[in-house]
């Protein structure tokens, strides 16, 4: 039906420009023909074309609704066994059309909802009831006012469908039973009743329903019921179907950890050990899916004894655990679960033949190392071996686990480890090298020999992969700051390498020299006395490299601040160019004759750089550096220049023309040249400073647009012939596509004032992103992408009609190809449709602006709160938080939400920001809100992450319901992320 539907919709939409009377006559004519032929399957596409067309009159929609309702009643009355399949198919399509009426014509939504609900109450056909319930849920997702009506459906009617003889009916009801207003205890009993269903997939759905229920119910009052569910899940560990055993593992993990808090008399530590050992018994299962699920669940256990953890790293049973046993079930009073089940669990996982299992084992190790220092040290020996794994995914996860260890001070490296670890710095994968440097950045090295080998490893990385220079310089900077005395010793040893040649010239093209200079200038940050150990000329040598170094440290320090820092330690007291020309001062590096005004003031502001010790946190270090960014230099050293509006607009337009000119280079595969050009464009854009709100929006949009083109260039290389690019990182393609979608969403929804030409340009890029995804369907869900593709094409056609211009060759050929090849009812692609052929037709045009752009963003602050001054809270009770919001360029059509989530990620809360109560819609609105956070966890302290998000109200994205009262559509972040520190209030008895 999808192809016919698209054809009719396209033909009809092209006629919407006619006069209203003529359009109305056409609607009447089309509907008359449909009525005469009765609503058959063949005419359903025409009916839907009328429904989804926004210009169709209410009279026609009402007639369609009445006719569909009448035929549904008739089909119900004439339903018999002989025409069951045919009638059921028609009933499905009729209900789908009623759902379309509710979605596209909101004035009919309550009527459609009540009509379909009446079918649920009156029909005796269970399959038809399920179809109706599905429609009701879909309608309620689009209309929050009807959510409560879903919970009012009689729970007995829903539970009765759970016991239907049809497997499909049982499966659907059990999968969605939590959405209806069924009491928790009854719901648990219903799900428990189906964990032994004859059909394995019904058992899986019932088990997953129990897991889902454990997350939504704060506390079960019936501990015996939880124990019964735990025991039944343990029994299913021997089920013949792997999917059932995997689902049973999830229940044991979640429900097992709920038991101590549910009133069951068990010793907490022993019971958690019991659940852990129970899961360990499944790591040798014959099914990869089951083994993988077992290791994922092991990482979720909240408490384990050290001796049990150590046993998982040794295949030999430890002496103190040989006779130890745990309860296998709640209902079993004797001890029947030997602790030896945990023997070598992680050893088996890290040696598994499937990379998925090895990855999960590595990940779980990272989550468990916080329980024991000894366990972390022993696990490190196994993890080092995993750095040689043939799978890049496993190596990457191993480094991520090491990063978790170093952040919680559990990574104690030894000299024997370093050779294997430093080998990752020259790995062929950029991701691996970056992850290794991420660990090295925070690592505290105990000996000079280890430090020296680490620095040499980074320098080898730089020589082998010069494109990593910026990140390597940043790591060297932090390593020098954290190991000041080691850094001075190393620089002293290699000082001859950075000396000028006999002609007095520095080796400006030598990255190794620049790297050593970065290490040298970072050493005094530990203690000022270390600066005396480094010759002042070394700081002078670094001045010509200041732009290169500042770019690498751009997240921490500005170029001007770094330059002042180098001048201070090179003992230069005046800078050329303040009162005389360069000709008057032949030696600008060594110093000239003219004093620099206010140099003492600048040096005093640089002083905090020297006072950062090894104990200072990275966050505090970055804060101190940012505090001195206001340092001002004479005009000759000022990088940013304030433009007039006209100059700024011309400059930005020229930069965007240069961006468009890179398209031919992208298609030719010259990606390195493209990236250099785009980086230059962004750097040039950063030099433009304007005071106009209109041009600020233009500037922000241009920066975001360049980022989109950068992502397209990074993705495009994956579609070039492999013989030219053997090093392609295909594992990153899905991540790059997600980043492209996210940045395109920002272009569309974070800027107001886009005219139709600018909107058309962005939609062409959205179309390109869809085609890129569909060209590699193995990494994406093509159903949602096809919906976005069809909606975007329709939008482009309407814009072209309004602008009275021809549709682009790329979009036109894509529309034609979809019509010829088509897609089925489930939105699956026809196999003969080749999207790769269409990519060659796309062309990136110049981005021309004619309107006024305003950047929609927000700033969020929490006054009086930091890690040393947390807010008090009582577990289980709402916690009040005072938040200061500054909103920029918000309009009445924007739907903003304040998102607050616990840092670990489980608990999340959305608060709708009603702009009608926030002082209207000005360019800048400031407001202070007192916000309650309801989901306070049972913890001594926690950290909230607060940010402002904007809901993207677009028809081309799938609805993503996030719970009652939360946002329905996709979201884009428009503010900074602010941490809110909370600590449990002390109670007195």
Automatic annotation (TrEMBL):
Tagged with keyword Methyltransferase: no
Keyword check for Magnesium: no
Annotated Integrator complex subunit 4/Protein SIEL C-terminal Ig-like domain residues: 861-932
Stored Gene3D superfamilies: Leucine-rich Repeat Variant
Highest taxon of source: Eukaryota
GO biological process, one term: intercellular transport
A UniProt-annotated Pfam family: INTS4_C
Localization: Nucleus
Positions of the UniProt region annotated as Disordered: 1-21
A single Gene Ontology CC term: endosome
Keyword annotations from UniProtKB, A to Z: Nucleus
PANTHER family: INTEGRATOR COMPLEX SUBUNIT 4
Name this protein carries in UniProt: Integrator complex subunit 4/Protein SIEL C-terminal Ig-like domain-containing protein
Lineage: Eukaryota, Viridiplantae, Streptophyta, Embryophyta, Tracheophyta
